[in-house]
Amino acid sequence: MPVGARAQSKPPANPAAKPTAKPPAPRPPTASLPLQPLKEARTQFIAFDASAFPYRGVIPDSNRPFLDAQAGPRRGHTTSRGDVFWEDTTYSDRRSLLFLPQGFNPQLPALIILYLHGNGATLERDVRDRQSVVRQLADSGQNAALVAPQLAVDAGDSSAGNFWRPGHFAKYLDEAAERLMRLFGDRRAGAVFNAAPVIIVAYSGGYLPAVYSLARGGAEHRVRGVMLMDALYSDEPKVAAWLAARWRTAFLLSAFTESTRGENATLKHLLAARRISYSEGLPATLVPGTVAFVATGGLEMHGDFMTRAWGPDPLRQALTMIPGYPRVPPPPPPKPAPKPLAKPLAKPVAKPAAKPAAKPSTVRAKSSPPKRRVP
């Protein structure tokens, strides 16, 4: 008969074998390092989803579509001067310029500077180079980030594009905070950019996106100040309404040439009617409640206004007038000088006790024996 195969039994464990070493226990997580200031400046040109253009809506207060001209497959916009600019060359650049200066410190209070360029401008040639906006911000010493959207590309047009839409300003700021956080390189900095107060700086034709951002942008509470650099060409009632609602928490600085003198005079009258006081000339500081108008010169200054308005580098000077946002923390207050140690009271030296006066010794005369009487 065939013999069934027996399964081989496992060899007995060797009692002398060493037990398997246990894996090392995981190290407890170490505390994250604090955010550090930037060692070098960072600049970026990057496309935004919430860009100013392309824009396919209508022009506010009219039923006219923004793109009202067509030549074959091309679509364009007709300006108030009768010029036609085509969407593919003028209204399709989605980029914004982002800049963080060397030493930017998210551990300190920070600002976002929103710069809106004028007509006939590009971000590289004009905003960065000719108008020196990046350099002026860096030289101001302020702990501030720069965001500058491309508006109409190198064209004589002030259209606001998507900034005409209600709430678009808020969307743009939300995206700017995200992209600035990525440029900084640490997700923890996102909260800083999301909460940073905003200063709007509008030059020349940048006035329309600035005005509509204030009027219907959805983030008016974020705006701590507005600088109009020869930029008030219309819509003075919108500026007056914003200031009447926000003057306790924001400032307005409007510098102008003969080009916008009339519009600035109109704004002054509107403010006076609302009993909002203002000053003439450059103020000492730009704090909430400051409203200042600065007359500078003639029309010949308009083209170089961003570099020589009331003096060299006016943007740098205006930014330094905003207190509370230095890039370098202020030095700690000096320690009070130590008080001089009080001299210990000297123990009174005990005077040696006066020796009692010696009693005069009484010398007794020896008594002589009585003389005997001789009988």
Kindly provide the radius of gyration, computed on alpha-carbon positions and rounded to a whole number of angstroms.
42 Å
Low-confidence parts lasting 5 or more residues at pLDDT below 50?
1-12, 361-375
CATH topology of the domain at 42-47 and 93-320: Rossmann fold
The outline comes out as globular
Major sheet characteristics:
9 strands, mixed
Mean pLDDT metric: 88
Q: What are the secondary-structure elements, in order, as H or E?
A: EEEEHEEHHEHHEHEHEHEEHH
Q: What's the tally of helices?
A: 10
- Secondary structure class reads alpha/beta
What is the CA-CA span between the terminal residues? Answer: 188 Å
Helix content: 10-25%
Top CATH class of the domain at 42-47 and 93-320: Alpha Beta
Per CATH, the architecture of the domain at 42-47 and 93-320 is 3-Layer(aba) Sandwich
Describe the structure.
This protein has 375 residues and is an alpha/beta fold. It has a domain at 42-47 and 93-320: 3-Layer(aba) Sandwich (Rossmann fold), CATH 3.40.50.1820. Helices cover 23% and strands 17% of the residues. Strands 1-5-7-6-8-9-10-12-11 form a nine-stranded mixed beta sheet, sandwiched between helices. Strands 2-3-4 form a three-stranded antiparallel beta sheet. The longest helix is centred in the middle third of the chain and has 17 residues, at 168-184. It starts with 41 loop residues before the first strand and ends in a 55-residue tail after the last helix. The model is unreliable at 1-12 and 361-375 (pLDDT under 50).
